[in-house]
Amino acid sequence: GNAFDAAVAVSATLAVVEPTSSGLGGGGFWLLHRANDGFETMIDGRERAPLAAKRDLYLDQNGDVIPRLSMDSPLAAAIPGEPAALVHLAEKYGRLPLKKSLAPAIRAAREGFEVDEHYRNLARFRLEVMRRNPETARIFLVDNDVPPVGYLLKQPELAATLESLANRGRAGFYRGEVATKLLAGVRNAGGIWSQRDLDSYRVVEREPIRGEYRGIRITSAAPPSSGGVALVTMLNILAPYDLQQLNELDRTHLIVEAMRRAYRDRAEYLGDPDFVKIPVAGLILPYYAQRLRSSIDPERATPSSALNGKAMEPEGNDTTHFSILDQEGNRVAATLSINYPFGSTFTVLGTGVLLNDEMDDFSAKPGVPNAYGLVGAEANAIAPGKRPLSSMTPTFLESNDRVAILGTPGGSRIITMVLLGALEFASGHDPQQWVSRPRFHHQYLPDQIQFEPDAFSTSMKQWLTARGYTLKPLQNTYGNMQAVLWDRNSNEVSAASDPRGGGTATIKIDR
Ligand code: GLY
């Protein structure tokens, strides 16, 4: 097979062995590059709001948000896109039958995978809600508690659902026995899915977002992800500066100010392009970046309050990413999600399918001032059949001789992680440095620089504070970047997996 078959196999296997992060009950974006004709597309397998969803789905009679309703119940689950996307990917771009590409995932579901510390941490984080769902507790907990390290977690019902998909394609999930169980499970628990939702779910192929940064071509995720637009905006703002020649303080200052401005636009303009008009062409124009750049004071932090915008909605941060390059030069960067760890924590009886809580990525209360006195994003309001705004940023970078494939999970911080990775690529560093460099993040509001332990020295912290920044040190590291580099001159390939995660990078050459 090719990279696209591998992407089907990897997506499906991650759905089994990382129930924390993605799955058949979720969705994602697969960015593709086909080597023989240079064709590039983004497969949008993002979840869609049920057709019965209303703008005020999560508000009470007083118009207040009902806490956790969009996170912890079947009402939080949007219509899954991953099964349809895998079928689409296999049929349109792969060479192998779905039965073959899904075989490793089916085996892993039947034979089990060993629980690791990452699983345990996230299960601990969601334990209380997982316990409330008997099917979830039965499959993903042991005696109603977090399973021990090394516990062999088997999912025979999920194996059967994957087999149904392998044998019957789309109809094996969205129609027939699996669909009947999904609808009964969701509706009996208070959800609002219908057969019409399952029948009308469509994968959409979207033109990726493109840009250029100092001779590097950028190809990244299109709306309904905000990732590509914000990434290109930030790189456009930074393009005239020779960042490597600047001292660390000035460099960090400019990068943070670029982040601030791109995230301000994100909350204002971005949503599902099938529902709202997004001024994409204008936002990624270098001329527009010049205007944004002209508002940067080289010596002082710009208070976000001076830029007049909206806060972004908080986002779930458990998602997954993989990057693949095959021997023909086909590429896949894929970021997949069920949103919060273990999604909505609701597993549908008899299917093994753990449902997403991607509905939480919508703006629950648009048009109403939030705690900061700011008005929430109209562009990302809930509507029937609409896709919630995402930050997932699967990306390709290309100079004349080097090709990079990268991305990461991490909620709203995904885009700034990919930005920092892209700047490492631009500096000529290798993938191990892109994935392991210390990280910092600014998202317009709250107006603060969040940073990993050890990201800044004591002097840097003092200098940043003196420039007017509020610093928010994080207790933990974040992200899990997976990256591949192909040097076309030497024809060498290198790959790296984030040291913060449990993965490894593999170079496998079949001869
Ligand atoms: N649920 C995370 C994202 O879509 O960005």
Explain what you see.
It contains 18 helices and 18 strands. The chain is of the alpha+beta class. The protein has a six-stranded antiparallel sheet with strand order 6-7-12-13-17-18. The protein has a five-stranded antiparallel sheet with strand order 5-2-1-9-8, with helices on one face. Strand 17 (482-487) and strand 18 (492-497) form a beta hairpin. Helix 12 (227-238) runs antiparallel to helix 13 and helix 12 packs across helix 16. The longest helix is centred in the middle third of the chain and has 22 residues, at 248-269. It starts with a helix and ends in a 14-residue tail after the last strand. Mean pLDDT is 95; it is low at 369-375. The site of glycine has 11 residues, from loops.
Amino- and carboxy-terminal Cα gap: 13 Å
- In terms of quaternary structure, what is this? single chain
Question: In percent terms, what proportion of residues is strand?
Answer: 15-25%
Residue stretches low in confidence (pLDDT < 50, at least 5 long) are: 369-375
Give the strand order of the largest sheet, numbering strands 1, 2, ... along the chain.
6-7-12-13-17-18
User: Radius of gyration, rounded?
Assistant: 22 Å
The percentage helix is 25-40%
Instruction: Characterize the main sheet.
Output: 6 strands, antiparallel
Shape: globular
The tally of helices reads 18
Ions, cofactors and other ligands present here are: glycine
Q: Which class best fits the helix and strand makeup?
A: alpha+beta
Number of strands: 18
Average pLDDT number = 95
